Structure formats: C-alpha cells, structure tokens
C-alpha cells in the first residue's frame, strides 16, 4: 500500500481524483493539502471537505495551503470551467468537519520526515505549496519517495495559451523551483491527459448506481464536460487530468515515460511553457504515452 499526500485545488477533476484515490486499495491517503488554482484556497479546502464527506472519508485530514502564487498576482479564477463554487453544478451544504489546524507546508514536511523515502506526493494544482516546502527544507528532495505532478505540456499545445498548461501557468516560478529541486518527478501533462476523456455517455450509470453520491459526481462532471464540448467541438468528453495522476500511482503500466530536461519559461509570449532542453541532464520523467481505454475502464470501475 502506497502512502500518498494529494495536493489539490479542488475543482471538478480534482474531486474525481480524490474519489479515485479513496476507492483504490493500493493507496493509503494520508491527507489532502489545498491550494488556490481553479478557485480560492478557502473554496478548495471547503470543496475537499465536502467531497471527502460525501465519500464517507471525513477521517482524511485537509490541510490548507497557499492563498496566492509566489510572486505574481492571480488574475481570475476559471469559474466557467469548474463552476461558480468549483464543483460544476453539483449542490451541497457546508461540510460538517473543519480543516486541520496544521497548514499544508508543515504537514508535508512533517509527514515526509516521519516516513522517510516512503511518501508519494501527488500534486494536481499549481505547485506553490511544494515550492514553499522545497524552499524551507531542500533536504526533502532526497527524503520523499516520489512526486507525481499533473501539469505541463512537453510536446503539445497548452490549455491556457498555445504554450502554457493551467497548473504551471498559475505559478510558473513555483514550477521552476520544483523542477530544479532534484525531486524525483513524474510529470503527467496534457501530452497524456488530453487523451483520457470521460464521455457524457458514462454519466447515467453513475446516477443509476447511487442517486445521492452518483448524482453529486455526475452533476459536477456534466458541467465540466459541457465546457470541454464548447471549447473543443467534437472532443467527446472532458480531460481526466487529475485522475490520471492517481492512475499512474495505482497502475504505473498505464503510461510510458521518457526522461527529459524540462525548463519553465518565466517571461514572454511562451510564459509557463514546459520546454524540453536536449543535452541537459534529465530532471523529470515525462509521460508520453497512455493506455487511454485501459485507464478509463479502471477509473470507472473504481469510482462508479
Ligand atoms: C489542470 O488545471 C486544472 O484546471 C485542472 O484541475 C487540472 O489540474 C489541467 O490543466
Ligand atoms: Ca487540479
């Protein structure tokens, strides 16, 4: 069983990743850490508590993290993608449980030190929390088991600009610190996540299985799929970005990786591009191929 900390900016696909992690016996979910990104950090924390409560896993602690990028100002939140409160058109009431008094950065540092070389960090939002961890405790790079990051686009266009993917774009300086840190990183970027699409046709089964919980997830996902279908006509579903990061932990054979040196562009038109630098020592294992149908079947088998 792999102990993981899941770092989230809980919008729709983050919520699906939480469900997938909770339903995967290969994983011991030590805690969630939250960041701004799809929504504010306070909303990410609330949404994470709501999703855990719906899944019957309020025992998993939620540690709140970064409110803003390291140096930039966050311009706007993509409420047209993840919905007004971040969970599509799902409805919910305030969670019964509160966040943990321990902040995200302290929780990550303490946990990694207490379980040396065991913990997998799965980061599926902007990399601000992890950059703070590395700055405060550079030793972490050799104490953590593995870091799986959803972010970037090595060999395909981005989703916020021709070059940039949303998580890297939300805090490019944080991504730069993380990529230079010596952490053992596997990058699950748009190269693979834009191939793992969840179609609208999978939603009725969810609602039928369990009107309450299935309806909650189907309502949020329907909103997200509609955005994808508007933004990319004919795509046939939403990208399962954050769930694929969990998929890579649970079933590594779903992807093929290639070691690369990736640098983060910090200025100009290509801001936040994760650019391959040939000839430099590799700093990231980049997922370049995915068994999309195998992943979709596994994901659906677990969450529905
Ligand atoms: C990533 O950006 C966020 O909107 C999603 O939750 C995902 O982590 C995809 O680019
Ligand atoms: Ca996310």
UniProtKB/TrEMBL annotation:
Keyword terms of this UniProt record: Glycosidase, Hydrolase
Domain of life: Bacteria
Classification via SUPFAM superfamilies: Nucleoside hydrolase
Record GO terms (molecular function): purine nucleosidase activity
Domain Inosine/uridine-preferring nucleoside hydrolase, chain residue ranges per copy: 4-296
GO cellular component, one term: cytosol
Coiled coil: none
InterPro entries attached to this UniProt entry: Inosine/uridine_hydrolase_dom (IPR001910), IUNH (IPR023186), Ribo_hydro-like (IPR036452)
Gene Ontology terms describing biological process: purine nucleoside catabolic process
Protein name: Nucleoside hydrolase
Organism: Cohnella fermenti
């Amino acid at each position: 069983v792999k102990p993981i900390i899941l770092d989230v900016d809980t919008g729709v696909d983050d919520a699906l990743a939480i469900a997938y992690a909770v339903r995967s016996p290969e994983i011991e979910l030590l805690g969630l850490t939250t960041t701004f990104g799809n929504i504010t950090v306070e909303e990410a924390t609330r949404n994470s508590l709501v999703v855990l409560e719906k899944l019957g896993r309020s025992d998993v602690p939620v540690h709140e993290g970064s409110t803003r990028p390291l140096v930039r100002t966050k311009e706007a939140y993509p409420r047209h993608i993840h919905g007004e409160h971040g969970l599509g058109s799902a409805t919910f009431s305030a969670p019964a449980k509160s966040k943990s008094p321990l902040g995200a950065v302290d929780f990550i540092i303490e946990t990694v030190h207490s379980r040396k070389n065991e913990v997998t960090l799965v980061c599926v939002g902007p990399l601000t929390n992890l950059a703070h961890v590395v700055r405060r405790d550079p030793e972490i790079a050799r104490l953590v088991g593995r870091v799986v990051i959803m972010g970037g686009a090595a060999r395909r266009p981005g989703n916020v600009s021709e070059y940039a993917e949303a998580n890297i774009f939300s805090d490019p300086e944080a991504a730069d610190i993380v990529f230079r840190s010596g952490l053992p990183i596997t990058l699950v970027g748009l190269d693979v996540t834009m191939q793992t699409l969840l179609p609208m046709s999978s939603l009725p089964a969810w609602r039928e299985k369990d009107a309450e919980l299935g309806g909650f997830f189907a309502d949020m996902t329907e909103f997200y799929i509609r955005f994808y279908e508007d933004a990319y006509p004919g795509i046939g579903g939403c990208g399962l970005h954050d769930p694929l990061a969990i998929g890579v932990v649970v079933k590594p054979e779903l992807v093929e990786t290639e070691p690369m040196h990736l640098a983060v562009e910090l200025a100009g038109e290509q801001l936040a591009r994760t650019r391959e630098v040939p000839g430099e020592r590799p700093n990231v294992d980049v997922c370049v191929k995915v068994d999309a149908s195998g992943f979709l079947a596994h994901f659906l088998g677990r969450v529905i």
